[in-house]
Amino acid sequence: MTYDATLASVETYFDRTATRAWEALTSDAPVSGVRATVRAGRDRMRAILLSRMPRDLTGLRVLDAGCGTGALAVAMAARGAEVTAVDISPQLIDIARRRAPGDMRGRVDFRAGDMLNAGLGSFDHVTAMDSLIYYSESDLIAALDALAPRIRHSILFTVAPRTPLLMAMWRAGKLFPRADRSPAMVPQSAKRLGRGLTACRLVPVTRVNSGFYISQALEVVPCS
Predict the structure, then answer these.
(1) Which of 22, 97, 158, 207 is most buried (most C-beta within 10 Å)?
(2) Which residue ranges form the domains of the chain, and what is each CATH number?
(3) CB neighbours (10 Å) of residue 118?
């Protein structure tokens, strides 16, 4: 699939199929055992991405690319950042706006749209937690190379790692149960991504394994 086709598929899934499930997963509401492991893994990954950024983000402009229901965007705003939080799903953006604490709403600009839109401007940091996991290797490399010239310090993002288990599940089309089918995640190799980049340099961070949630954090910094 092309980047645009994948983007449309992701929008359809989160706006029409999975809005309620995603709203529950990213809240404090009780969830099933499998979803509880995903929630715990995402909480851990969010903390890891935050740990790679300065504790004081005052005066810095940050793009949360694929912000979902807004937890990471709000956390960065609480550190003083001016956050532009973008998601392709208007439904998720509506949830994010409702959830944002009153004192944070002036620090986070929630927008529905394409996270690669050059009209968003330049940033000190970009985060993309679990929002680039559906794209092909070539589209992901192109996206990172397109973002890099607009970034001063780093792009922190996650991928599904290219492990034997995930590759077998991917080939079998079973990365998600059929009753909750999302666009297929594409397992990625950090080494292959790093070799493909031309406008920036990739640094592996760490991996989170929490039940059904298996995710690799990576960091991209502009080429010096």
Answers:
(1) 158
(2) 3-222 (3.40.50.150)
(3) 11
From CA 115, how far away is CA 70, in angstroms rounded?
A: 14
Q: What is the value of pTM for the model shown?
A: 0.91
151-159 vs 213-222, strand pairing mode: antiparallel
Nearest-angstrom CA–CA distance, 121 and 195: 27
d(CA 23, CA 34): 16
Q: In what order do the strands lie in the sheet with 213-222?
A: 108-112, 82-87, 61-65, 123-128, 151-159, 213-222, 200-210
Residue with token string 């740990």 = 51
> Could you give the CA distance from residue 171 to residue 218 in angstroms, rounded to a whole number?
24
Q: Are 144 and 119 in contact (CB under 8 A)?
A: no
CB 10 within 8 A of CB 88: yes
CA distances from 41 to 8, 108, 207, 214 (A): 26, 24, 10, 8
